[in-house]
Amino acid sequence: MVLDKIKDLNNAQNENILELSASTFKTITPTLISEKLTLAEICKIMQSMENPYVMTPDYVITPYDILEVLCKEM
Fold first, then answer.
1. Cα(54)–Cα(52) distance, rounded to whole angstroms?
2. Contact indicator for 68, 43 with CB cutoff of 8 Å
3. 8-45 pLDDT per residue, tens
4. How does DSSP classify residue 54?
């Protein structure tokens, strides 16, 4: 998200990118899910998301976390 915004601003020829207000960037709100979902169900939810992050009450799960789990099981 941050890199996309910097790319957009760079194309607009803004010279003070590092001095921009934080409100310039949209925040991503993860989808809250149940801890009882299977890995396959989590992947299905994330597959249709522009920013694939899901959250349980205790954890934030990213595609990288899914890859780590799969690689450990090999």
1. 7
2. no
3. 666 555 556 666 676 766 666 767 888 888 889 988 98
4. E
